[in-house]
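Morning!

This is the sequence you dropped in the shared folder:
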Amino acid sequence: MKRSKARVRFTLAAAVAAMLTVPALAGAEEAAPAAAKQVATKLAVEGDFAALQVGKKVFVHDSKSQLFQTNGALHDGELKDLFILPYGPAQIPMVLVKNDKTGYLVFSDLWPEFAKGKENDNKEEYMSGRIFTTAQKKVANRTNHNYAKQIGDTVYVYTANDFGDLKKGYHESYRVKGELRGLILYDCCPYVVVKGAEGGLDVYHAGEKGPALASHIEL
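The structure's back. Tokens below.
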């Protein structure tokens, strides 16, 4: 049975309020007057978060305000799903966006390493990973600090031994059975994406006792 998104606590009133205030919160009128006149055409809700499609842009909110948005011709696109990844006790909202040129991309808010001095920035996003609709033999993140590799029926996830010197090699972080479809990064932690047994995509991370299901992506 597919995982049900039953954890929705974002009230309808809050979601509608977020939808109506996207242009103001995003500063769209200042940045692009034409975009400011557009209305949200799609709303995805998960936990305490909402993602809204406004024109070609995607805006992500918590229950209080906007957190981030997609930016630019290579990042903007069609909102496909909103999902949450666990990061310690924190809940991190992620959006899957289909861009006409760059394919399926995953975005999050800026994570600690890149948020210094930008704690109140509600526009900038971080391109956290890429998703594929077909099986992959190997997927690495942009900096090659983490990668995942398909060997037989198992996906192995590796992390650099020294983030400052990749020549020192990698160690295995965890492994999970499945078909490799992508890799997502948040604050140096790799979340591997595999084909779900009941459809969609499952996201795993390193749990306390081995690989643990972190989230699910609907395509």
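Headline: The chain is about 10% helix and 50% strand.

More detail when I'm at my desk.
O.
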